[in-house]
């Protein structure tokens, strides 16, 4: 991305063209063609999808078959529309339904009764259980969807397992990163809203409900029964307490610990998470105290 900080690189740039916002057009040398867009980052994304359409979905195996590979197992009761691709060693269980244009990657397991929409990609080595998955969803390698949540009750002889009989519902155009896990609901469902993007190594517990067009970065953990609104952004390695609500448009900085509910558009950081202005003030104070201690130590 072009910014004022890296404008010096333009003098040696040999790009065929540069996409930039209107306020930066004066920085572009005359020898570089320019495409001006008020939403330059989005324009770059759209251009990439046109120039490299194959990169918009993960490669599911080294083999690129049509139809069902001979080494895959498809239960006789499964219903696959025309145009579904099933890669080597994949397993499609009983009563599964998969829509046209979808692809099941090598070694993936689709459990009994799962429903998968159209033009959805399940990459290699995934396991999908107790789930309803919409259209144009991408689930990257090694993801685990629909396993039991962590539910136990203390008893006189130890921890007693609480049955997990809910589902995972993943709406249209969701992306789920490699090795992420989404637990099925206990009695209700775990829900991931339309257009939400989930990075690698994210844990989403039972009965969590995530709204539309959220962004959840790597190594986030969301505890059970939390409700997250639309357009929420959660930075990497953050922990979200259970049974709270994070309202529409809230933003959580990386490595934060959210213990209580957040209001619409609220921005927080730190452990425990607090308004980001308070967090930055606290950090500045601590740095100032440390600098004073260092200066005092040198004088002594």
UniProtKB/TrEMBL annotation:
Active site: residue positions: 206
GO molecular function, one term: UDP-3-O-[(3R)-3-hydroxyacyl]-glucosamine N-acyltransferase activity
Keyword tags: Acyltransferase, Lipid A biosynthesis, Lipid biosynthesis, Lipid metabolism, Repeat, Transferase
Record-linked PROSITE patterns: HEXAPEP_TRANSFERASES
InterPro entries: Hexapep (IPR001451), Hexapep_transf_CS (IPR018357), LpxD (IPR007691), Trimer_LpxA-like_sf (IPR011004)
EC annotation from Swiss-Prot or TrEMBL: 2.3.1.191
CDD domains registered for this protein in UniProt: LbH_LpxD
Pfam family, one: Hexapep
Catalytic activity line of the entry: a UDP-3-O-[(3R)-3-hydroxyacyl]-alpha-D-glucosamine + a (3R)-hydroxyacyl-[ACP] = a UDP-2-N,3-O-bis[(3R)-3-hydroxyacyl]-alpha-D-glucosamine + holo-[ACP] + H(+)
Pathway: Bacterial outer membrane biogenesis; LPS lipid A biosynthesis
Keyword Lipid metabolism: yes
Known role: Catalyzes the N-acylation of UDP-3-O-acylglucosamine using 3-hydroxyacyl-ACP as the acyl donor. Is involved in the biosynthesis of lipid A, a phosphorylated glycolipid that anchors the lipopolysaccharide to the outer membrane of the cell.
The protein's assembly and partners: Homotrimer.
Family: Belongs to the transferase hexapeptide repeat family. LpxD subfamily.
Entries under HAMAP family matching the protein: LpxD
Stated name of the protein: UDP-3-O-acylglucosamine N-acyltransferase
Gene, per the UniProt record: lpxD
